[in-house]
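ligand=heme C
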Amino acid sequence: MRLPLLFAASGAIAALTFAARPAPAEPAAATGAIADIPASCASCHALTKPETPTVERLWTRKGPDLWYAGDKFNREWLVSWLQNPAPIRPGGVMWFKHAKPGEPRDTIDTASIEKHPAVDAATATKLADALLHLKGEGLIVEGEFKPEGVNLTMGQMSFGKLRGCVSCHQDKPGQGGVSGPQLHDAGKRLKPDYVLAYTRDPQKFDHFIWMPRLTLSDPDLQRLTGYIASLGKENK
Ligand code: HEC
Ligand code: HEC
């Protein structure tokens, strides 16, 4: 099935400018930060936690939620991605809307996935700072991931054969499933404490998300997080 063009007016991005405002003396609260994010972004992304999550909202949303962006992204990655956005979800936000039936398996109609609007460096920095103020309450526990002594080989086995994460996520470009975000640059993109919290309980982030909640022991969570947090990093 083909979707109508979501990014019909990519030129509209040129209109994304910031109102000149004095730098706040203290970090802006989330509400202040939202005022710094253009309405066009909010037309595709939830910037505040949906009051009543519904499966309809999840299925019709145009972009992933950003209301917990501050819990999730590494700043350096965010600033760079906003200027030069590369696909994260190889199958789009809802992969089955872009799936083409085929043998032996369905493929993704990548031409139907629209390019993300890009912004210039100064705008990217301001946007990243605003986005990083958006946090959920009690979603992640800072410092919960303990990198010391984590066995990456065991983590890789867990990701692949043992827990089957690879059926929905890529840990190397082109290797793995397409119904979840790729994780092959997760070490640059995501905070390890977020990776751990999401893996433990995806429904805490969205009640209807189709990632299964597995019962994982703490050592297993640490290993999986260690492996995912190592992906895409230059110095492993
Ligand atoms: C027409 C809809 C649309 C607009 C407008 C839009 N985005 Fe997006 N955004 C998307 C989609 C779709 C994705 C998912 C891309 C992917 O996974 O490959 C995305 C992904 C993102 C991500 C990564 C999120 C994640 O969880 O991986 C960030 C950050 C982001 N957008 C920020 C912005 C900002 C800031 C603006 C405004 C300047 C904006 N977007 C405007 C649709 C949109
Ligand atoms: C049935 C498919 C499926 C399986 C199996 C699965 N996931 Fe996911 N995963 C998803 C989906 C869907 C999302 C959220 C998609 C979104 O934000 O658009 C997700 C999100 C994530 C995220 C957050 C990524 C991000 O960019 O926000 C992490 C980390 C993650 N999964 C790790 C794992 C691990 C570790 C396993 C194995 C224990 C696993 N997943 C198994 C489908 C899956």
